[in-house]
């Protein structure tokens, strides 16, 4: 009986297997290595390293580090983009523009700029005679529209606008005869070139004003410091353009609905909508020479032009649009 009880007690005691202490030592050393890897030092008396908690802390640290790195990258990108978007790109000379490839010019804004002159004199230094003006380029830098002020009963004045179309408003490759008289006066007649561009601007109140920036058939005379003249402003839309109700100048319907009784279709309020007007108007431009380079035949200056806006084929009263900017040309004898 005593022997049986002793055997049972022996079976109930924890059995010590060979190799278990070695496995415990291995787990302890592995845990100590992980703790040291995460920057934790185990206590000498009692080892309390929780692998799950440490991994969670490491994940938070990695997320924080990623946020900081992303913020730094975004900040640096913002600084770089702000530096490149600050103002307009550097103005290049004609030879510098011609030396660049399409990919070097694409997306830089240079294609919408007129060339400048490197050197030269701050006056018009060409001798009297007959020349041919080529590469005549006009680059607007300001569009203002004469309209009623935002405040009540404010008189009409030229207001700053916001450009709504792309940077495709520069006129270029314009040419024509240019004559310098013995008395110092000059005369230029526009004959050909990319001499019009459709532009739309928006007033502070939200109204959008489309117009056709042009100098068609310009005849400019005067001193080099200030010469100019009238030019033709064609209709913003052609006679074959159809409005949303199918009415046009040379095609389409005569009225928006069936023929009204009593001649109501010819009333003034409907007449301007039914009868399309594609007639041209006139504008005026003043040019001024600021620098010239006789050895290369180049001339640059500034200009100011005032012309009417679109009339929606006669349905609206046009607004005066003031355009200011730079111009460049080459004179060949």
Figure out the total of helices: 6
Largest sheet: 8 strands, antiparallel, barrel
What is the CA-atom radius of gyration, in angstroms? Answer: 40 Å
Shape: globular
Arrangement of strands in the largest sheet: 1-4-5-9-10-11-12-13
Fold and architecture overview:
The protein is α+β, with helices and mostly antiparallel strands and 333 residues long. Helix content is 24%, strand content 32%. The protein contains six helices and 13 strands. The chain has an eight-stranded antiparallel beta barrel. A three-stranded antiparallel beta sheet has the order 3-7-8, with no helix packed on it. Strand 4 and strand 5 form a beta hairpin. It is globular, with a radius of gyration of 40 Å. The protein starts with a helix and ends with a strand.
Output the keywords.
13 strands; alpha+beta; 8-stranded antiparallel beta barrel; 333 residues; 6 helices; single chain; 3-stranded antiparallel β-sheet
Briefly, what is this?
The protein is α+β, with helices and mostly antiparallel strands and 333 residues long.
Could you outline the blueprint of secondary structure elements for this entry?
Layout: H1 2-12, H2 20-37, H3 51-85, H4 94-98, H5 102-105, E1 129-147, E2 157-160, E3 162-163, E4 171-180, E5 186-189, E6 192-194, E7 196-202, E8 208-214, E9 219-223, E10 226-233, H6 268-274, E11 281-293, E12 298-308, E13 320-332
Antiparallel strand pairs: 1-2, 1-4, 1-13, 3-7, 4-5, 4-6, 5-9, 7-8, 9-10, 10-11, 11-12, 12-13
